[in-house]
User: Fold this.
Amino acid sequence: MIGKIRQQLILGTRNPFRAPGRRRPCVPSKKLIADGPVREAIETGRTRLFITGAVLMLAFGCIGLRLVDLTIFRSVEEPRVGRIVQSERIETERADIVDRNGTILATGLPTASLVADPKMVIDPDEAAQLVASVLPDANASDIARRLRMDRRFVLLRRKLTPNQQWNIHRLGIPGLNFQREETRSFPHGRLFSHVLGFTDVDNHGLTGIEKSFDGRLRDEREALRLTLDVRLQHIMHTALSDAIDEYDAIGGAGVILDIRSGEVLSLVSLPDFEPSQAGDASEEQRRNRATLGVYELGSAFKIFTTAMALDAGVVTMDDGYDATKPIRISRFTIRDFHAKKRWLSVPEIFMYSSNIGAAKMAVDVGAETQRDYLGKLGLLKPSPIELPEVGSPLLPRRWQTISTMTVSFGHGIAVSPVQLASAVSAVLNEGVYYPPTLIKRSDDAPKPMGQRVVSKQTSHDLRRLLRLVVAEGTGGRAAVKGFLVGGKTGSAEKQVNGRYKRSSLISSFVGAFPMNDPKYLVLAILDEPKGNKSTHGFATGGWVAAPVVRQVVKRMGPIVGMAPVDETSPEIQETLTVTLPSEEPKLASF
Amino acid sequence: MRTYAIAGWLLLIMVAGYAMFRVSFEVELLEDRVSELNREALQEQEAIHVLRAEWSYLNRPERLSRLAHDLLPKLQPPTLNQITTIDKIPTGEETDEVLPAAVKLTQSR
Assistant:
């Protein structure tokens, strides 16, 4: 029977794929008659063939469609973007901090942490032994304990060095993995320890700029540009620490300000600490003496007393006061350190640093006006500098006549070094106050508005007086030929348990240059310096702090692009000379 | 005729299909290459980032002054009388004889 069907197919007389119902009527053949069981078998075969073919067609069709879909329209179902690594910029947890010239001061460096999946560790004890052999000061039993924990993730060690990471990798222990982390790094070490501050292990800012700009450093990628200059910071740091060593001081602070904008170019506090080991630093090391510490700064306040007296029109440069006898008021006596015991003109009071003269001048100015001026100079409120560690000034509780007198020469009022620096800057900057700032403005940003404190004329008079102190008065050791340094010494006894201690001084010198048109202010403060042979035993500002300023000015002058000038030229003489009423033999400078 | 038309269309479809798949695979390869290059660029950037930190570390003023002191003992910080303004340098016409040869050379240009 099968043979017959095959015969039919071969002969081509029958189309096997033709549906049975629509069969063309064929000419009946006498030879072949499909009938009965034969016909039935043919019909079955035909149906099966058709169904199989249809299923196969459908399957291939599906595969084809899917192929087209996968190849051409795949992006619809499977986004390609996910696979492509964006290379615009690397992701860091915190933005860098750079100095005014773009030198990196703080940055995040990738480090690896050792983590483990205890489920995957085959032999915890052996693994722990091996890991401990590679990591110094690691405790094998402690590691083994952690590797036996019933968890899928344990942290074994943070911040591996590349070498340690390599060694552990080489051990080839299954279940140990590395996790990428970021460590805050301060390439300049202790040079900026107080300004920058430091972060905790999770990169949260704890002190300094790291704290005050924590949010900004996390959210923005752009580096935070400071007004500081690495080179000037180094110069200040070196000069100050040399002086601390030489005069055996317990600490010091140094500030360099751009007088015309209030930008802080250098801010040093000593002793300092290594930011990478901030946890080991003592309280004394961590304290920022330049902004947090408040000190009675002594005679530097005569700058403000004289400025307010001249500005308020209470005195002129030709007036003066009788400084023959010490002032006795209630149970206090105000005397002069360099007593002249005669009538002194205003420039002489300033130059010889007469407490008696300053006190009398302040009484004439009046307590109210004095407070008003000091307030405008930013001395009655904490400094607005962008650091969390800012000290509040200590002010007289009741502003009586005695307070007015002592404040006039810098006693009974304690301010931070940075406050003093910006107040003196204001007096010298044609009388316009700019708040001190550490954040560099972008070049196209509008210049901030300063606040006028004293008149231009007063400012010019004070420039002359400050120059006089260095040229002929107590600040001679700050002089740098050609840079027209001017300044004021200050030496105040420290209060210990509520009493002034004669032997512990806060010695300071606040200087500025070039005095015919001041651009930079340099302040150096030494805490408890001791006099030595080279200073004839003196530890006052003129002897120990003035040389620091001299050293800084000498080295920074060429860096800030300033050329020395001829100090004897007639124009400079004219702008800076002060006529003193009586000619006296030249002073020994201290 | 009809057979030819069908054959022609089939050929066209095959050619188009081949070309399409070819382009598609090529795009895929290129995309892989792009992401590989991006990954490399990222790695380079990270290396640069670390190197910049190292550069800053190596340029600590304290280290530079120590190196200068050890390796260039004759190099001193500039003193102030080494600095002057350009108009204070004598011109060649007036003081031709006293100037060293090097100065004359630069001025003649």
Notes: Residues 37-72 of chain A form the longest helix (36 residues). Residues 585-590 of chain A have pLDDT under 50 and may be disordered.
